[in-house]
Amino acid sequence: MIFGVVRDENNFPLKDVAISVKDMLAKTDENGKFRINIPFQKQALEQRLTAFKNGYQSWDFTGAPSETQEWKIVLKK
Known about the structure:
Elements: E1 2-8, E2 18-21, E3 24-27, E4 33-36, E5 47-52, E6 59-63, E7 71-75
Parallel strand pairs: 1-7
Antiparallel strand pairs: 1-4, 2-3, 2-5, 5-6
């Protein structure tokens, strides 16, 4: 599982940010939160996550999925 929160440079939560891991997609809610459950057959020690919202720079990072560690993403204009 990968979960976390997306904020802007001023630390405000961003709604409707597109989050993707492989072919799995999610969007952030009104609090900037997202969650992607990764099926067993697509699990790996590291996953590449991308975040995109019009008007902001794309964000791309590879890291280890965790059921306890929240990913904190900051999108810049």
